[in-house]
């Protein structure tokens, strides 16, 4: 039986690896990877802000917030990896520099001077809601392309960000 050879059409321009062919068009893969890059930048920015607040929080709520922020930045730190690796699985490069994140993020950097403890909580509520909006905005692109792994990842991230926003918001309510 003759060996099956790959058709030249499936080979990449550089020879070695075959062209990615997972049933999602190049245009859709690029659009989803761009959305995931924004989500990665927002998640990384919120991670850094939360870690900053863990270091710099002061006041009577120190113990509670110091520990709570640690739990939250650890979760965010663990979240950036699957987002970046989904971008790679879609055939694109994952951004990973402060310059790239600065261009892509919808969230502002942490303030230079540490705010009060309650102001920190307020900033984090807005941060988690901002990341949730970024994840939700790109949902239609993933659904349109039947990109279930991305839709699943977005669902998981939305659940975490909306729940964390609620918990932080509760600290500010009477
Ligand atoms: Fe620590």
UniProtKB/TrEMBL annotation:
Gene3D superfamilies, sorted: 1.20.1260.10
Domain Ferritin/DPS: 35-173
UniProt GO molecular function: DNA binding; ferric iron binding; oxidoreductase activity, acting on metal ions
Key words of the record: DNA-binding
Pfam family of the protein (one): Ferritin
InterPro entries per the UniProt record, alphabetical: DPS_DNA-bd, DPS_DNA-bd_CS, Ferritin-like, Ferritin-like_SF, Ferritin_DPS_dom
Keyword NAD (UniProt): no
DNA-binding recorded as keyword: yes
Family to which this protein belongs: Belongs to the Dps family.
Full protein name: Starvation-inducible DNA-binding protein
